[in-house]
Amino acid sequence: MSEIPVKGKDVFRVLHTADWHLGKSLHDYSRKEEHELFLEWLIHEIQARGVDLLVIAGDIFDTANPPQAAQALYYEFLSRLVQLGTCSAVIVAGNHDSPYFLEAPKALLSYMYIEVNGVLRSKPADRLLTIPWGEDNEKEFTVAILPFLRNQDLMRGRSGQDQKTIEKELREGIRRAYSDTAEALREKGMGNGPVLATGHLTVVGCTKADSERDIHVGGLGAVNSSVFPKEFDYVALGHLHGPQFVEGDERVRYSGSPIPLSFSEEGQQKEVMLLDFDSSGLVARQSLPIPPWRKIYQLLVPWDRIHEVLDQFDPESGELKTWVEVKVVGAPRSVDAHQLVMEETESRDFDVLAVLLEDAPTEENGDSVEPLSIDVLDEPLVVFRLLMNQGGVEDEETRSNLETTFLEVVEEVEKELA
């Protein structure tokens, strides 16, 4: 990749974002308007704040074969970034992305100061990108580029392996990928200036949302922050949709998604991270809150108070019309709760995207039945677990082994389709 030299500055400024999920829908409603507003805002922030490097840590798209509208958003944004003439970019694949789709224009984009990496480079030294900066380009900023690490990058996948063996091999593979990269830094004498590493994975102890799918077989492969060597001044992560530092290691950060991707993210402040480095490392960081152009709400409605609750519900509005997901608890099966809710709210200043039915707690055990959203059809593991429940598969070891086998098949299919 060609890099834009950063001259005449005391600091090298990076903006960290991830998990755009372009092409995402929510209950079949497009998120295109929100993504357009976010990308417009992002270009403005990059220009206004003098950002030297944009890092996108995976899941640029929501699917491996994104719709044309999502591709257009992506390339229009990159075109505007190039036109600024002041900011390079590093883009890595996430678990939702097709690595080969992302890398198809790699050679062309490299001439535009954009480095795209979909697959892990086998030689650790090839994962290192150096950007000159300073008054006479005498300083160097290094990016250790690691995309989402797929199972074939991390394990040999021998038949007959149990869950614990697979888990151990996955975690060791992730640790080795980062440690080998840090070793290449030391061998090339590149560890003296600031170093940023990328990643798209799950770190234990972090908060998940229900819009994130398991990214390794059976949900295994979550790692401790100790896998990231001390040579990395900052680790820019993607995958988890809530912005957060990793507990116990504030070098490691999830930027989170720029828009809420499920109703479980109601009220979550979305952000990107602005980072300043000097020749010694990270010297300042600032979270930039992203405007909530569309408010979303989950509304829990007891059936015996449905008219009262819906009448009193008065949500905030943003620039775009507010979206609501209604959960009706304890509705008789003989009534059409969906139609009732839609009729009660048709003249209100918000749109109800979905009406979910939830059984009232039973006297026997106090449990309620979790409502089934159409969104689960996008999550093969969730559907498979539901089928196991219906089939009466209760033994935990049996369920775990079946899940492992199922996800191995899913991964093989996704590889063939990528």
How is the topology of this model organized?
Elements: E1 12-17, E2 25-26, E3 29-30, H1 32-48, E4 53-57, H2 68-84, E5 88-92, H3 99-103, H4 106-110, E6 114-117, E7 128-133, E8 139-144, H5 151-154, H6 163-187, E9 195-200, E10 234-238, E11 244-246, E12 249-254, E13 271-278, E14 281-289, E15 296-302, H7 306-312, E16 322-329, H8 337-345, E17 350-358, H9 380-390, H10 396-417
Parallel strand pairs: 1-4, 4-5, 5-6, 8-9, 9-10, 10-12, 15-16, 16-17
Antiparallel strand pairs: 1-13, 2-3, 7-8, 11-12, 13-14
Helix pairs in contact: 1-2, 9-10
Descriptors:
alpha/beta; 17 strands; 3 domains; 418 residues; six-stranded mixed beta sheet; globular; 10 helices; Purple Acid Phosphatase, chain A, domain 2; Double Stranded RNA Binding Domain
